[in-house]
UniProtKB/TrEMBL annotation:
GO terms for molecular function: carbohydrate derivative binding; DNA binding; DNA-binding transcription factor activity. Residues 148-290 form the SIS domain. The lineage of its organism: Bacteria, Pseudomonadati, Pseudomonadota, Betaproteobacteria, Burkholderiales. It comes from Caballeronia mineralivorans PML1(12). This is RpiR family transcriptional regulator. Keywords: DNA-binding, Glycolysis, Transcription, Transcription regulation. GO terms for biological process: glycolytic process.
Length: 298
């Protein structure tokens, strides 16, 4: 079996979480399948890595604990605890509310076997949503957000696509953007017509694609079509390892909180609302006046 470790000297080169994630992104395509699973877990659970045990990560990834150790060694660390140390350095004392919410959810689930009351379920899900919002605020990339706003401001046409759990978000973005003078199109795929609805995209247009693991094939097709026709792409996804993020003109990352294996949409909707408000401000719109009249609720 080929040795997967690198020169230990490389461990000194990785000092921050961002540096590690950049190295993982660059190496991802060449990683063995098991190590890809570990990479994806770490990308999607950054704030939890410092608390997770090797066995917990292995179980979540469906791999043997030795694969988690090999993953750390692949990037120049002597073991998983050394890799964990950079997450502890990054997150200890920062984003504390997110950590406490995650710990609270785990504790409540562990300590309440059997049937939970409806109120307990609601509070745990609300806490998970708060955790996601805290992580969104801490990890927001101002440069990418500004690039996203500028792209939308300059777009001739805006196409928005999101399937399955991302579809409500796509619908909301279209609703919000229709309060501007922009030409906005929802790529709904009604009747299976994704290809037909995206075929008119061209240079000068922007495709907004919302997708999270396991990444809708329809959304990936629309992004490829946009790139083929010279349009720009704004991708809203869950991390650098997303196949949609690698060649996007701009990307915004969001990781939702989850409880009972169900992910919320709170952070994604919040990010999209912020994107619209920032665009409206750039376009010098009066957001209050953009609200519909005639008794319709927004």
């Amino acid at each position: 079996m080929q040795e997967e470790t690198q020169d230990p000297q490389e461990a000194t080169e990785i000092q921050t979480v961002d540096e590690l994630m950049q190295r993982i992104t660059e190496a991802y395509d060449a990683l063995p399948r098991q190590l890809k699973s570990v990479a994806t877990y770490i990308e999607q659970h950054r704030s939890n890595v410092m608390m997770d045990r090797t066995g917990d990560i292995a179980a979540a990834c469906g791999v043997h604990p030795s694969a988690v150790v090999r993953f750390a060694q692949r990037f120049g660390f002597s073991g998983f605890s050394d890799l964990q140390a950079i997450f502890k350095q990054a997150y200890t004392g920062q984003n504390g509310s997110a950590q406490s919410y995650q710990q609270r959810i785990r504790k409540l689930i562990d300590e309440k076997p059997g049937k939970l009351s409806g109120g307990s379920v609601a509070r745990e899900f609300i806490a998970a949503s708060q955790s996601g919002l805290a992580e969104l605020e801490a990890g927001l990339d101002d440069v990418q957000f500004e690039a996203a706003v500028k792209m939308l401001q300059q777009a001739e046409n805006i196409y928005v696509v999101g399937v399955r759990r991302s579809f409500p978000v796509a619908s909301y973005i279209v609703y919000a953007l229709q309060h501007t003078a922009k030409r906005v199109h929802l790529v709904s795929g009604f009747g299976g017509m994704y290809r037909e609805q995206i075929r008119s995209v061209k240079k000068g247009d922007v495709v907004v694609a919302i997708s999270f693991a396991p990444y809708g094939k329809e959304t990936q097709y629309c992004v490829r079509a946009a790139q083929h026709h010279g349009a720009k792409t704004l991708v809203i996804t869950d991390g650098q390892l997303s196949p949609l993020a690698r060649h996007a003109s701009a990307h915004l990352f969001v990781k939702e909180g989850s409880a009972f294996a169900f992910r919320s949409l709170t952070s994604t909707i919040c990010l999209c609302q912020a994107l619209f408000i920032a665009l409206a401000y750039r376009l010098e719109l009066n957001v209050e006046e953009s609200r519909e009249t005639g008794g319709y609720d927004d």
